[in-house]
């Protein structure tokens, strides 16, 4: 299926690993020009090299920026537009998932989580919008989780930030539909990523017999389809939403969770 | 993007027109084998000819079926299995949309709507499941509307049937995830189709100067994106959900509505 992404310019935050890198790879395969953004240049360089070699597409840039810093975000967007002349697609994917019981969550944890996930998306979207309007349209895809729609216990601050992300998606979709800027979210369950590898490393330090496969299998046991997801299984959905084939979808949330969410 | 649909067997109810025909066309274009189920043999035959000519794929058949009749549904599924050896994808799309204020709805109207949309999906899903279980990539996609999630006044019985369709989707997605069958729904807004054209014709009877473009233009002005949707804008999403690229998506309800729905 032709996705119509050839020559489109895309930014993916949290793009050096996991879902972000998978989305960047999928779009690069379809001929888009992709800037991946995260805090660490070395990670970006490695990821950009991977994507170029996997896809044969050399239009891949790695730009270090902290999305909680509005000036850095503006500078990053300016660099992309300066390099490729415009901007069509923004994937707000940067984020981590601190989770605990309400009273155990400290101010700093609240600030960090809201900073990266909510303000990060606000800063990036605000910087991107003028360029999308100039192009007569665009796409914003926000990565959130089903916990933002159906919040379990022990899930703060992350479920609150994700609920905020879903609300941002719906409200912005109403505000910018007339500009042909389509704004959606994917609500991801558990997919393989560096975040989870780090958790495994911590668990493995306590129990050296726990292999990565076993760790993933244990997590997968709780998912209706019986396994955790591959990053590409979210990356491909993001790529589809960024494409011409999703031209009447806006204000939508798509669960990519192997069936975990209690709600649609 | 390679959807991995080559050789997959798909049944589409309400497949001779509108969204169903668009989904069938895209799946056929991607190399799938497509069976259209609908009531009118004449419309089925036209649709088959159109799809074969548009896609160059001759694996397109049609079976006249009333989905409210369980025996006809069983016979239709048996015929597809006899033809192609199995079923991988079922698109429950047959439906109409009777809409009014509660007290104005006759019992016959309730019964007809629920039989067509709810029982139709139940009968087809029940008949297809044994075959979907044998497939390596079983998929059920139900067509519903965003009114099933966020119900305005004056929309019964259709919004009730659509809410039922969304619930059926979520519950079945939980029941069959472990068997590799993914169940999702597309929640559509106003999409061009033979059905909407027939509404136009009845309005034109009272207002001779009304053109089809004006009719669609009026409805479109109520949509955030400013226009109604094209059938392909739904058909392509159904094909994506049916594909290998949506392998971690189940229990999802994707709005395809130009931004109308108040909820994600």
How does this model look, in words?
The complex is a heterodimer of chains A (264) and B (264). Chain A is globular and about 50 Å long. Chain A is α/β, with parallel strands linked by helices and 264 residues long. Chain A has helices at residues 18-29, 41-55, 70-84, 107-134, 158-176, 194-206, 212-220, 231-242; strands spanning 9-13, 33-38, 60-64, 89-92, 99-100, 138-144, 156-157, 181-188, 253-256. In chain A, the strands form 2 sheets. Chain A has a 7-stranded parallel β-sheet, sandwiched between helices. Chain A has a two-stranded antiparallel sheet with strand order 5-7. In chain A, helix 1 runs parallel beside helix 2 and helix 1 (18-29) crosses helix 8. The two termini of chain A are 26 Å apart. Chain A folds into 2 domains: 9-191 and 229-256, Rossmann fold (3-Layer(aba) Sandwich), CATH 3.40.50; 192-228, no CATH class. Chain B has a 7-stranded parallel β-sheet, with helices on both faces. Chain B has a two-stranded antiparallel sheet with strand order 5-7. The mean pLDDT of chain B is 97. In chain B, strand 1, helix 1 and strand 2 (33-38) form a beta-alpha-beta unit. Chain B folds into 2 domains: 9-191 and 229-256, NAD(P)-binding Rossmann-like Domain (Rossmann fold), CATH 3.40.50.720; 192-228, no CATH class. Chain B is of the alpha/beta class and 264 residues long. The longest helix of chain B is centred in the middle third of the chain and has 28 residues, at 107-134.
């Amino acid at each position: 299926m032709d996705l119509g992404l050839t020559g489109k310019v895309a930014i993916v935050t949290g793009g050096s690993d996991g879902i972000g890198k998978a989305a960047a790879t999928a779009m690069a395969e379809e001929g888009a020009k992709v800037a991946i953004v995260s805090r660490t240049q070395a990670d970006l360089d490695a990821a950009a090299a991977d994507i170029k070699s996997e896809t044969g597409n050399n239009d891949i840039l790695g730009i270090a920026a902290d999305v909680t810093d509005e000036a850095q975000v503006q500078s990053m967007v300016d660099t992309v537009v300066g390099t490729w002349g415009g901007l069509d697609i923004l994937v707000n994917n940067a984020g981590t998932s601190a989770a605990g019981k309400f009273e155990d969550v400290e101010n700093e944890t609240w600030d960090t989580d809201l900073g990266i996930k909510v303000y990060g998306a606000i800063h990036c979207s605000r910087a991107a919008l003028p360029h999308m309007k100039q192009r007569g349209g665009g796409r914003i895809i926000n990565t959130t989780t089903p916990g933002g729609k159906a919040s379990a216990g022990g899930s703060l601050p992350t479920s609150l930030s994700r609920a905020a992300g879903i609300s941002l998606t719906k409200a912005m979709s109403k505000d910018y539909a007339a500009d042909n800027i389509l704004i959606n979210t994917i609500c991801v369950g558990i997919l393989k990523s560096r975040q989870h590898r780090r958790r495994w490393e911590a668990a493995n330090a306590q129990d050296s017999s726990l292999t990565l496969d076993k760790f993933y299998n244990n997590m997968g046991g709780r998912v209706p389809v019986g396994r955790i997801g591959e990053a590409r299984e979210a990356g491909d959905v993001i790529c589809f939403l960024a494409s011409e084939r999703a031209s009447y979808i806006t204000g939508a949330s798509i669960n990519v969770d192997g069936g975990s969410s209690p709600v649609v | 993007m390679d959807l991995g649909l080559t050789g997959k067997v798909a049944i589409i109810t309400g497949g001779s027109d509108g969204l169903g025909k668009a989904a069938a066309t895209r799946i056929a274009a991607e190399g799938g084998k497509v069976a259209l189920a609908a009531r009118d043999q004449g419309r089925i035959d036209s649709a088959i000819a159109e799809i074969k000519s548009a896609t160059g794929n001759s694996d397109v058949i049609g079976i006249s079926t009333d989905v409210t009749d369980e025996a006809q549904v069983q016979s239709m599924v048996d015929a597809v299995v006899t033809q192609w050896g199995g079923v991988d994808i079922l698109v429950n799309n047959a439906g109409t949309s009777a809409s009014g204020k509660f007290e104005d709805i006759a019992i016959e109207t309730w019964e007809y709507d629920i039989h067509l949309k709810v029982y139709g999906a139940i009968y087809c899903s029940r008949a297809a499941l044994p075959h979907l279980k044998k497939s390596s990539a079983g998929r059920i996609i139900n067509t519903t509307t965003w009114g099933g999630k966020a119900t305005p006044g004056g929309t019964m019985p259709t919004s009730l049937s659509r809410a039922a369709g969304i619930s059926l989707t979520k519950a079945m997605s939980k029941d069959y995830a472990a068997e590799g069958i993914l169940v999702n729904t597309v929640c559509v807004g106003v999409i061009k189709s033979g059905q909407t054209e027939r509404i136009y014709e009845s309005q034109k009877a009272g207002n001779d100067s009304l053109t089809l473009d004006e009719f669609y233009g009026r409805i479109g002005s109520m949509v955030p994106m400013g226009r109604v949707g094209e059938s392909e804008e739904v058909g392509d999403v159904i094909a994506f959900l049916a594909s290998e690229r949506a392998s971690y998506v189940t229990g999802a309800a994707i709005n395809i509505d130009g931004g109308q729905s108040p909820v994600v």
